[in-house]
Amino acid sequence: MEKKEMEVVKGVELKRYMGRWYEIASFPSFFQPRNGVNTRATYTLNTDGTVHVLNETWSDGKRSSIEGSAYKADPKSDEAKLKVKFYVPPFLPIIPVVGNYWVLFLDDDYQYALIGEPTRKYLWILCRQTNMDDAIYNQLVQKAISEGYDVSKLQKTPQSDPPPEAEEGSQDNKGIWWIKSLFGK
């Protein structure tokens, strides 16, 4: 049975979408530490209309981060389908890894979001706060189910309140987890 095309949010105002988002839950992916906590993304609008992406996570007290850029897959479309490009590894040779970032749900106040991509292998529930109301969480999970996701794979991401400062645990394993994961270490 062919899964239907995913419904993507239209007309997202990128300016309002910028700032910090905390990962409330996600499908475990090979490019994040298994035991990562306080995982978050910070988006900053560049002058050329692209978005600077900073992903941070802490594992065993150490901060790992990776930077990339996001841009609209089709500048003429009003659908919130972005491409995110990271450079892996963070030293030579540089291989850009490009992924899809589709906004499947976003509330009117830009406080929580459901992010997926066309293969349905990845799913993220993001929030401006470090914790999310259960009713909202369940609403986003239902939306994911309606878009054909296997939500049994969703894992909640531990978030501490208040969140760590960027300087905490600053032995910065810049992108090291990518390298490890690529080689299955």
From TrEMBL:
This is Lipocalin/cytosolic fatty-acid binding domain-containing protein. Belongs to the calycin superfamily. Lipocalin family. The gene is Vigan.02G263600. Residues 12-159 form the Lipocalin/cytosolic fatty-acid binding domain. One of its GO terms (cellular component) is cytoplasm. CDD domains: lipocalin_Blc-like. Residues 153-175 are annotated as: Disordered. One of its GO terms (biological process) is lipid metabolic process. It comes from the Eukaryota. It comes from Vigna angularis var. angularis. It holds the Pfam family Lipocalin_2.
